[in-house]
């Protein structure tokens, strides 16, 4: 063993020099900067964002600068950049820049003003819908990934179903039956709390064994719900739901959000599953940190990157969905302009006034494309394995 | 048992620890069989001493470590830490013992959170101690870093900026942050090159002298284990095959597996001649476990008795146990 000791020489505290300091952010910028298309996407996105925000202020209020609802029947279907006919207009009807930047529609409304208003709709629908879907997705995926191995007992499932049934019955006015079911549920809770204290194991072993058996794991339950949701073609699911609900911009956002969380859930679950097995999580557990802290401080920051990427692309598809709904007449109700319903109106005049379809169509194309480019750029930067290929 | 425990000042005693992983196959994920990763392991670590756990890849060393830290639920046995059987303790009951046992990992890249600075990672542990260091967390952080030989300006850097050896030091600092009494080192130097290995091992030794730590040192490198450990357990397919003091393992190995391990290490001193020949070694398939002695398919001196009899851990001399009836029977004539 002499040689071993010789090998363990006394260069003990010698420290190799640290590399130059470069934060994650700087590294991110370096790699992102090389991706021209992603930069372009980001640029267009920022432009769109500014347009939408300024548009909100310019087109709202009691006397907006660009009034998207101002009807001038004598000026209908004017082409882009046409000068207004000042003789036939009241002074307050003259467009703000003295020119119809994007022409007018069949009611003589200023398409530029309507596009500005629509930009804000698209932006909020995109962000709120994706916000909802990401929140649900992180929650469900996080539970499935981190607590997935826990099992749910049969009686808990039956109990939940009964409670939902009871509440549903109360809502649709079968008040008495509903309340009876809910009370039965409460009685069951009460009973099982009592039964835990007195250990009466001999009385109903079969029934109790069935009720207390493990039905499914949390992971299986959540992922099967995801599979079921994915079975429906989502656009038609949205159409059905929107047809039943009163048309409003908030309902659209919520419905799009509620029908698009499945992808995020799968992402987050996969990330949690792999991160949970990592040594640094084991170290955190060994230190005695709480589950809450481990999830939010140690796992989440590592799982969030791919979620952000898919969210960026999700915004694009939410905007597209909203435009599609508006086009079909299920979207935001008519006086309010959105890119979808401008397009929808315009299609009747596609030969007389092609700009009515062309302008919103191109706007949707550019915004969706820029989001996708930006999202894919982000993904390449965050995933070093993809990065090496370039 | 208790009194013997006190005499030895044992900090951790494992008795008959078992962990079987189910093998699931098919569409319904039916349980097909069991991987007996840890199958009745017993050993003891004395206060302030180091026990080595050696064995080839896949024999269950990491599983033992994770069972001790209660990162995995064990199936049977006892984990007696400071006189309490913590095996069935709930998370709440574990609270006072959690910080007493810490772990250092093999993979220096996976063991640090890539999104946290070094300072943040270590402070997670300092925070656990609560108000003890509440006022001077920064100071405590700097002390910990200097204890492991890192400069204090590394605290606001991210793990990817460090080399493997530096990360291993950071991992040690994190383990020390909660002032543990036992550290499980799961192959802490296997991923490092030789000169860095030496630094880390010396660091561990220094820390033991300063802080009175006990180590469970897991490795497959007998050289390292021999240098660092007071006692050694040799593990094979979920069983401890031989347990003895470091000198006994090196000078009077009894179990054929230990002997083959010793013959496999590059001989550090050409004057010593091992009286052994290498085992006819194909690596055994860990999840097909034969009856009788687990080592029978590779053992050069196996007999029919080895196939059937249940092997027991037999004492061949004071503090020297071996799980092989043949070695136990003729230990008198074993090479000295
Ligand atoms: N979570 C698990 N599920 C199923 N089998 C497992 C699991 N963890 C470990 N095993 C099995 O248990 C056995 C022992 O694994 P373990 O990681 O403890 O080996 P090891 O001695 O640490 O090996 P190495 O030296 O390569 O680290 C292996 O056969 C492995 O396949
Ligand atoms: S019990 Fe038999 S097979 Fe096992 S190690 Fe001893 S001699 Fe070899
Ligand atoms: Mg291992």
Summed up, the helix count of chain B is 12
Tell me the overall shape of chain A: flat
Distance between the termini of chain B: 33 Å
Order of neighbouring strands in the sheet with most strands of chain B:
6-7-8-3-9-10-12-11
* Second rung of CATH, namely the architecture of the domain at 41-149 and 232-387 in chain A: Orthogonal Bundle
CATH superfamily of the domain at 41-149 and 232-387 in chain A: MetI-like
String of helices and strands of chain A: HHHHEHHHEHHHHHHHHH
Q: What global shape of chain B is seen?
A: globular
Q: How does the major sheet of chain B shape up?
A: 8 strands, mixed
Rg over CA atoms of chain B: 21 Å
CATH class of the domain at 41-149 and 232-387 in chain A: Mainly Alpha
Mean of residue pLDDT of chain A?
83
Q: What pair of chains forms the biggest interface?
A: A-B, 37 and 54 residues
- Residue share in β-strands of chain A: under 5%
Please characterize this protein's 3D structure.
The complex is a heterodimer of chains A (390) and B (336). With 390 residues, chain A is mainly alpha-helical. Chain A has a domain at 41-149 and 232-387: Orthogonal Bundle (MetI-like fold), CATH 1.10.3720. Chain A contains 16 helices and 2 strands. In chain A, strands 1-2 form a two-stranded antiparallel ribbon. In chain A, helix 4 (111-146) runs antiparallel to helix 13 (291-327). The longest helix of chain A has 37 residues, at 291-327. Chain B has 336 residues and is α/β, with parallel strands linked by helices. Chain B has 2 domains: 2-100 and 180-330, Rossmann fold, CATH 3.40.50; 113-179, no CATH class. Chain B is built from 12 helices and 12 strands. In chain B, strands 6-7-8-3-9-10-12-11 form an 8-stranded mixed sheet, with helices on both faces. In chain B, strand 4 and strand 5 form a beta hairpin. The relative contact order of chain B is 0.13. At the A-B interface, helix 1, helix 12 and helix 13 of A face helix 3, strand 6, helix 4, helix 6 and helix 7 of B. Magnesium ion binds at residues 61-62, 186-187 of chain B.
